[in-house]
Amino acid sequence: MLDTSEIIDLRPRRNKVRPDRPYHFLHERERGPDGGLKEVNTVFLTNSECPFKCVMCDLWKNTLKEPVQPGDIPAQISHALRRLPQARVVKLYNNGNFFDRQAVPPEDYEAIARLLSGYERVVIENHPKLCGTGCLAFRQLLSGRLEIAMGLETIHPGVLPKLNKQITTENFAEAASFLAQNNIDTRAFILLNPPFLTDPAENITWAVKSVEFAFRCGVSACSIIPTRTGNGAMEKLQQEGHYVPPTIAALEQVFEQALRSDGGRVFVDLWDLKRFSECDHCFEERKQRLDQMNRKQQVSPPVQCPQCRQ
Ligand code: SF4
Ligand SMILES: [Zn+2]
After folding, report:
1. Number of structural domains the chain divides into
2. Is any atom of ligand 1 closer than 6 Å to the C-beta of 151?
């Protein structure tokens, strides 16, 4: 297990980012809770660094060392939305917690809500322990429905405490319940192959169990994130035998099982998927199948590859 100072000491350099610009934005389509395919604008905000230092996290790479100033976040959102097409849903992903006052100054909530007034759904990210009155204040200002994405990561009792996330499954359940009582939707991020779980079959089992737990907590969607190296700590854990990267085959199995459990919408994160590929021959076909399953929310026929025989 690594503590916060070790995790920080192992880090490579962060990327150069500007406080008045999002570091990325994109347009995508995603199946909504009503079953319709929705146009989505996703803005990756440049923010101050998250105060939690999870061992698997590399989101700090695109953050600022200092707090953002009032006006910065609305300026970033405005910059991105002026360049993106019309959409029904907007996601603000900020590499941290929207209701951390250092990350998004509450005096900016009104300006942010004004910029998002044309959207029917607003998705933001937040830590379960920071779900409180700030969520309610922001929800009041929105014309669309608020959805809060929270990292559950894993429910494995031996692994979750070692991630330095500083949550328990009870914290997650309480946050989801509080938000549901206040008419706020939730989604969960679930890790495939968290560090400290190295058996391939166990990784599949616990990812599916974690998805099922999140749905029992009332979330309406789960996003499965394959873990990766690149933040220093994960390389060290891999060298020491405490981390193994996931494979596309494992991601496919988790996705199929999670969709068949029929608890709600399930998505897999396809960003940088190539790094998990074991076969060049079938990679594109497998990626397209996963993309199709994301959109249709149904299991597609498996890929049969003559090269890798998977
Ligand atoms: S709470 Fe989220 S953003 Fe913060 S360190 Fe953990 S994974 Fe990264
Ligand atoms: Zn293959």
Report:
1. 1
2. yes
The CA distance from 206 to 154, in Å, is 7
Q: What percent of the chain has pLDDT over 90?
A: 96
Residue of 2, 52, 148 with the most ligand 1 atoms within 8 Å of its CB, for mutation: 52
CA-to-CA distance for 267 and 301, rounded, in angstroms? 17
Domain membership flag for residue 304: no
Q: What is the per-residue pLDDT across 72-128, written as a single tens digit (0 to 9) for each?
A: 999 999 999 999 999 999 999 999 999 999 899 999 999 999 999 999 999 999 999
Q: Which domain, by its residues, includes 153? A: 4-296
Q: Write out 174-193 in H/E/C secondary structure.
A: HHHHHHHHCCCEEEEEEEEC
List the CATH number of the domain containing 83.
3.20.20.70
Q: Please report the atom of ligand 1 found closest to the CA of residue 58.
A: 8
- List all residues 6 or more positions away from 274 whose beta carbon is below 8 Å from its beta carbon: 283
Are 220 and 186 within 8 A, CB to CB?
yes
Residue 307 lies in a domain: no
In a domain, 308, yes or no: no
- Our CA angle for 290, 31, 46, nearest 5°, is 85
Q: How much distance in Å is there from the Cα of 305 to the middle of ligand 2?
A: 5
Distance 96 CA to ligand 1 centre (A): 6
26 in a structural domain: yes
Helix, strand and coil in the chain, % to nearest 5: 40, 20, 45
d(CA 159, CA 207): 12
CA of 302 to the centre of ligand 2 (A): 12
